[in-house]
Amino acid sequence: MSTTTFSTAPLKGSWEAQLTEAERLARNFNDACLPIFDKLYTRLGKMPKARRMAADERLQNIFLRAADSYQGYLLMREQYDRALEVIERMGKELGEAEAVDWNIHTALALHQAGRDDEALERMRPQPGPPADEKLNVWSTFVMFATKIERLDDAEKALAHIAQLIEKMTDLDEDDLHFERAYMASHHALIALQRQEWAESAEWIEEALSWDFELAYKYREVYQTIALKGPPDIALRLINQGVDDVTSFFFRGLAHHRAGDDAKARRNWEKVVAYEPGEDEGVPLLETILAYYYLGDPDRIGLELILRALSEMDSTDWALLLLAGLGWAFHGDMRNAHSNLENAMLLRRMTRPGAKYLPIELWQHAQLLLDDNFLPEIAPYLGMEIDQAASAAENKGEAG
pTM of whole model > 0.85? Predict the structure, then answer.
């Protein structure tokens, strides 16, 4: 959900004041924002566009910002028909530069509404563009189909891309390496979705062989396998990359799942002791999780994330997720529920297609939390309680 600020306090009753109030209410999950957003969207939308575009596009900017926040809040409240209506209108208002991104946004909203056939057709390339443009649009389609787990469609599209590449006689060696690495990387992601761990690893290693820098989603592959798949495969992939905070964390996770807690601990200690250079940041996710896996006896990890929430952005769903997991780890389920619910709702507002929290949270919860807490975490992931209880019984099994 976008927010807007104004250089001076808006006049009471002005369009700006109404937008400010609606966004304030939305940030607090107060449904009183809905009639205000609806009023802004409807009344400004009925104005002639020329009038909205006057005076440095003042009213047009308010209209678009209000519509953007409105559709995000509607998605969060699962009012999909109205949300999609607003989204379609915004697509017509935005310029050509935003058209592709907004088309993806629309398709993801359809996915969130459970309308995957429509979402896929929305993204399916139409005949007509030149070969190089066709390659780009088909690649976007592959990424989308993989994301929504329509894997047969993704594989058919990849086969079509391979045919397009064969017909492109003007590709130089670097271009060819890029396309082959890209194709192999996407085959790896599809296999990853099917939990075909060995096949996924083989495909990403093929991508690495063409060009390490072009191995699309290399980290995503080894991270997912470290979390859910065979630890030995994860370690093999991790060891082909550079050593950094991310690799230390996931190497530790793979060792932990393999039963070698001494090696796991050594890697996680490297994460929490890491001191970045001047031009370098430290991945907050891996750092906080490393503290949790080390037991967080002095609550350093939890305090770090709570400080980040107060200093950085209290409306960042990823920070709230880490805080919620930390509270649960330390046995405070009241605060855990508050943070996880807010994280889920914020993610819905700001990430079309994301109805629940990332499923990766479930694997971490199984490894970190008392079994009694797992059914309480399940609803934030869209899981049924009996599913959660069944999964908890098998938490020690490697995938």
Answer: yes
